[in-house]
Design brief:
Layout: E1 2-9, H1 14-23, E2 27-40, H2 45-50, E3 52-61, E4 67-77, E5 83-91, H3 95-104, E6 108-122, E7 125-132, E8 141-146, H4 149-158, E9 166-167, H5 171-177
Antiparallel strand pairs: 1-5, 1-8, 1-9, 2-3, 2-6, 3-4, 4-5, 6-7, 7-8
Protein name: Class IV adenylate cyclase
Domain CYTH: 2-177
InterPro entries: Adenylyl_cyclase_CyaB (IPR008173), CYTH_domain (IPR023577)
């Protein structure tokens, strides 16, 4: 179980931001293709009662072709200015079997999305450059994940990020704003 502090940076050019990160000394840590399968009950128990979401993420490393499948419960902790989540995750070896177990418990696939992610590390700051398929979310964005809030301020200044482009919204909230229904 881990705590993460993150924000999304909207309205940006991914290539331009990637160049800024490299120029500042960022190190490429991964290039991935992801399939994110969101799971909940028909009543949206996980979303509405736990302020969380449950997903199965299949990650394919574009360099090594290694595939990893992880089940994650991501719980949002309400905070001002930064999104704090508590993540509980476990690797799974058989996605279809896990989906069958969840189905037997009353959970179903709510949405499946495909994402390309390029990640960089600069000191204790992680930058994820994300581009979803058009149906999931049509606009690219960057996530900044930090261990301490001071590092977020450092990243904002270092990359000259306009504050109005910073969002603490989840992908579900961003989709809802665009009326992209599951």
């Amino acid at each position: 179980m881990g705590k993460e502090l993150e924000v999304k940076v909207l309205n940006l050019d991914l290539k331009e931001m990637e160049e800024k990160i490299k120029k500042a000394g960022g190190t490429l840590i991964s290039e991935e293709l992801q399939v994110n399968t969101l799971i909940d009950s028909k009543e949206k128990y996980i979303e509405n009662n736990l302020n969380s979401y449950l997903r199965i993420r299949e990650t394919k490393n574009k360099t090594t072709d290694e595939v990893k499948v992880t089940l994650t419960l991501k719980k949002n902790m309400d905070r001002e200015g930064i999104r704090e989540n508590i993540e509980t995750d476990t690797d799974i070896s058989n996605k279809e079997a896990m989906l069958e177990v969840l189905k037997a418990l009353g959970y179903e696939i709510v949405q499946k999305g495909f994402k390309e992610r390029t990640s960089y590390k600069l000191e204790n700051i992680r930058f994820d450059l994300d581009k979803w398929d058009e149906k999931t979310y049509p606009y690219p964005y960057m996530e900044i994940e930090v261990e301490k809030e001071e590092d977020l301020e450092k990243a904002i200044k270092l990359l000259n990020i306009p504050r109005e482009n910073i969002s603490t919204k989840s992908i579900v909230e961003l989709r809802n704003e665009l009326n992209l229904l599951f």
